[in-house]
Amino acid sequence: MFPKTLLFEGEFGVKRSSLVLLSIMLLFAMFLAACGSKNEVKDPPKEETVKEEPAKVEDPPKEEPVKEEEPPAKDVSLRVFSTFGGTDAAREAFQAALDEFTASNPNVKIENEVMSANDDSFRTKVNTDMTTGNEPDLLFYFVGADAQDFVNAGKVVPLNGLLDADADWKNGFSPNALENTRQKDGNIYAVPLTGYYEGLFVNKQLFADNNLELPTDWDKLKKAVETFAANGIIPLSAPFDQSHYLIEHFILTAAGPEGQSKGLADGIDPNWEKGYAAMKELYELGAFPKDAATIDLGMASNYYGEGKAAMILEGSWAFGGFTDQEVKDNTTIIPFPVVPGGVGSGNDIIGGFGSGFYLSKATHDNADKKDTAIALMKHMTSPAIIQKIASANGGAPAADVEILGLPQAAVDGFAMSANSASITTPVDSKISQETFTTLRAGVQQVVTGKKTPAQVLEEAKKIEDENQ
After folding, report:
1. Element (DSSP H or E) covering residue 196
2. pLDDT digits (tens, 9 = 90+) for 213-260
3. Dist. CA 165–CA 159, nearest whole Å
4. Integer CA distances (angstroms), 97 to 75, 137, 301, 320, 378, in order
5. How far is CA 345 from CA 217, 245, 270, in A?
6. Which of residues 172 and 404 earns the better pLDDT score?
7. Residue 418: what pLDDT?
């Protein structure tokens, strides 16, 4: 580390020790200098360092949980009974609505059991089923007195709770529609599809061809009856046995809405007799078909629908039974005129929401059927289905929907309803079926003179008292 000469002994021996010492001191001084220099640099520049991210260790791929396949929905079979049969204008729309439900629910099979409302045996069928444990899962049937027996027997369930629990479903109905279906106990057992109106269907062309005014009062009606009878045209097509519409309209215009609505429970309104007396007066003028004693409502409808009769008392559902397009195009609908001595206004009509879907208690209590049956009922009374049914049959929709493409006669019918002084449900909804059967049987007896109106009404009153 040092020059060799500094390490020789001899003449330079004296200096050797001094040199060694000096060298040591020099090294010590250099060390101190180095240390002092280091202490003066308080903040030495930092070298930029790149922080290396730790290598990312990717998680092993997660195994997707194995989804357990949901068990297939159980097969459910439901039976639906309704009066959308025969020539009902909404028959196909009703079937299509059922098909729509099964298409969305392939596990559901629906037996669509239908009869015509013009066939009286459907009432017998319903009453038999409801009393023998053969009730359908869903029943489309009348409300009021027609349903009171099986309501009292607990064969169907109140729907108030279901309606309150599903605001969307409940709010889809017009409030008046639901109110019209309440039974005596205040509960709603049936949810409606469409309402209806009844009136005097008139062939305007036949009236024009015979120089007759429309029968807006009794005198004009009598003149029309006499004229048509003389010219070989049936004036007023109606049967005597299935005389539902004759009784409804003659009693309504005779007794007025208030007298008709009382029924017979509190006595016989003397104005009811005037209704029967007016039927006899028209009969004697030749108003009814010659075979009125043997035909049914279907045949009576055919007479009018084929242009063989000038008038018929019917309901908004009747258009499907009219086969002649010219008859359809020339039909209008007006209120039935007031009978002699009647207290009606001349602008009172029969109508309302008189039928709906019932849910049987047996189905409600069946865990395998209950939810599906309720879902079907909600589907069949949804605004979309109500619109389709009302468009088909011309009835008043039970929901706030627009009905398009109606024939002019149906438009006239809605206008008649809107402008009426009152809309009253039929008299058969205020009395028992046995009582109404007696009133029907009394039509032929009165018009042919075998019994007086008073006798028929007394018989009916007796039966009504027995059924209270």
Report:
1. strand 196-203
2. 999 999 999 999 999 999 999 999 999 999 999 999 999 999 999 999
3. 10
4. 20, 17, 27, 18, 11
5. 11, 18, 17
6. 172
7. 87
Q: Distance between CA atoms of 79 and 77, rounded to whole angstroms?
A: 7
Among the listed residues 299, 215, 285, 200, the one whose alpha carbon sits nearest the alpha carbon of residue 250: 200
Radius of gyration of the chain (CA): 46
Tokens 């009236």 sit on residue = 207
Cβ–Cβ under 8 Å, residues 201 and 311: yes
Q: Where are the alpha helices (DSSP H) in 132-203?
A: 145-152, 160-165, 167-171, 175-179
* Full DSSP string of 49-115: -PPPPPPP-PPPPPPPPPPPPPPPPPPEEEEEEESB-TT-TTHHHHHHHHHHHHHH-TTEEEEEEE-
The lowest-confidence range among 110-119, 228-237, 299-308, 331-340 is 110-119
Distance (Å, rounded) from C-alpha 319 to C-alpha 391? Answer: 12
Closest Cα to residue 194, out of 317, 101, 295? Answer: 317
Find the helix or strand (DSSP H, E) in which 264 lies. Answer: none
| Residue 296 exposure: Cα atoms within 13 Å on the Cβ side | 7
Task: Return the beta strands (E) in 303-433 as ranges.
Answer: 309-315, 331-334, 348-352, 355-359, 422-424
The beta-carbon contacts of 361-364 under 8 Å, at least 24 apart in sequence, are: 361/154, 361/155, 361/156, 361/157, 362/133, 362/135, 362/155, 363/78, 363/137, 363/138, 364/157
Q: With beta carbons less than 8 A apart as the criterion, state whether 77 and 100 touch.
A: no
> Strand, helix or coil at 236?
strand
Do 135 and 129 form a contact (C-beta atoms < 8 A)?
yes
Distance CA 420, CA 350 (A): 10
Of 137, 161, 155, 154, the residue nearest 373 (C-alpha): 137
CA pair distance 316, 305, nearest whole angstrom: 14
Model pLDDT for residues 317-331, shown as the tens digit of each residue: 888 778 899 999 999
- C-alpha–C-alpha distance, residues 452 and 435, integer Å: 17
pTM (2 d.p.): 0.74
- Between 308 and 175, name the one with better pLDDT: 308
User: How many other C-beta atoms lie within 10 A of the C-beta of residue 355?
Assistant: 25
Secondary structure (3-state) at 3: coil
DSSP one-letter code for 234: E
